[in-house]
Inverse folding.
């Protein structure tokens, strides 16, 4: 059910995005940083599911809050002539890699444990057969 | 007990899936819009938001001005027609009509035609051995001098790039272009003058101003013509301060 909802959301978003009017180039930098922030929360959500401390409220507030905060920081940086958005990108991408590492480790461990189980099973059966 | 927890689980799942769907929708929407924007703006030169707005505004005002100007022209035509009808069979009024026409000729507010010359001044092309590239450019003082000499040679009507030279005309420098009658004109400058073509063509005499410009590297062309048409002055001549002495 969740996967179906995600799929429908993605397809709907892509279709509407294809037909929607373009935004001005000045605002596209804000949208870019918001996208990075949102992607970071998505990966964070997946890794928290794996760690089994997933909370929907935290996830939603992180998704929108991080995006808005990133946009505000970018605007502030432009007003002060400091490239704050660089720092935001660094932090978000770093966190993305951390979360991706967590997810990867989980699945690799799962896979390898499965493999070792199979091997042990095989050995057991072999042992039984030989006995 | 088990059923209740199952029910609450189901509701929770529904909620979660709806929220996740909305979030995925927002995320993909943003990504697709961003990709399209970036793809489309790479080709254009400058896409500053404010710049675009200002450009659109300028175009809007230009269009409005042109519309108003067309209306004005129409009204003037109507006025002329009405005036002609009114003065057709009246000797006194015909005299007044002639006076108006004469005044218009003097003011430069009517299109005129007659024999004259056409002078074309074009900025010279830069050569590697040019000493002073500044000499190659037609400056506002050059235009002023040529107009002055044309007047001296008896020109009755003069225009520069279709800007009629009238009493109130100023010729001034405005960066890399020249300001005439408040309108901006640029190279090549086509100066038309009505008068005796032989006299006017004497501007190209040795030692004259045109000869000097030619020596500087400016491209100068003089052409005699039997029917030069000079447009009317398009601005408004208004008097705020002067009064007649009684």
């Amino acid at each position: 059910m969740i996967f179906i909802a995600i799929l429908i959301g993605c397809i709907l978003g892509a279709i509407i995005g294809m037909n929607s009017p373009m935004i001005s180039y000045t605002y596209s930098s804000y949208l870019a940083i918001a996208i990075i922030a949102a992607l970071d929360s998505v990966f964070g959500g997946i890794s928290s599911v794996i760690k089994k401390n997933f909370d929907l409220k935290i996830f939603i507030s992180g998704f929108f809050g991080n995006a808005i905060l990133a946009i505000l920081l970018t605007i502030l940086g432009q007003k002060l002539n400091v490239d704050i958005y660089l720092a935001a990108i660094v932090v978000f991408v770093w966190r993305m890699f951390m979360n991706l590492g967590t997810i990867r480790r989980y699945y690799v461990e799962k896979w390898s444990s499965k493999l070792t189980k199979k091997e042990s099973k095989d050995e057991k059966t072999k042992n039984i057969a030989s006995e | 007990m088990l059923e209740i927890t199952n029910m609450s689980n189901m509701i929770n799942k529904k909620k979660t899936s709806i929220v996740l769907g909305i979030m995925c929708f927002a995320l993909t929407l943003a990504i697709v819009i961003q990709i399209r924007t970036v793809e489309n703006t790479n080709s254009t030169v400058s896409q500053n938001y404010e710049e675009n707005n200002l450009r659109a505004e300028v175009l809007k005002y230009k269009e409005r001005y042109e519309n108003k100007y067309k209306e004005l022209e129409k009204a003037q035509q109507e006025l002329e027609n009405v005036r002609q009808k009114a003065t057709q069979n009246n000797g006194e009024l015909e005299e007044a009509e002639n006076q108006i026409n004469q005044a218009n000729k003097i003011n430069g507010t009517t299109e005129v035609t007659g024999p004259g010359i056409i002078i074309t001044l074009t900025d010279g092309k830069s050569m590697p051995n040019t000493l002073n590239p500044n000499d190659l450019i037609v400056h506002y003082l050059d235009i002023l001098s040529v107009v002055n000499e044309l007047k001296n040679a008896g020109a009755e009507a003069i225009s520069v790039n279709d800007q009629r030279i009238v009493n109130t005309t100023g010729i001034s420098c405005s960066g890399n272009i020249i300001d005439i009658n408040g309108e901006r004109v640029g190279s090549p400058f086509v100066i038309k003058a009505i008068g005796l073509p032989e006299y006017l063509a004497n501007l190209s005499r040795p030692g004259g101003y045109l000869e000097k410009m030619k020596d500087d590297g400016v491209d100068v062309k003089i052409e005699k013509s039997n029917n030069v048409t000079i447009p009317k002055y398009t601005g408004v001549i208004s008097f705020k301060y002067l009064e007649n002495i009684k």
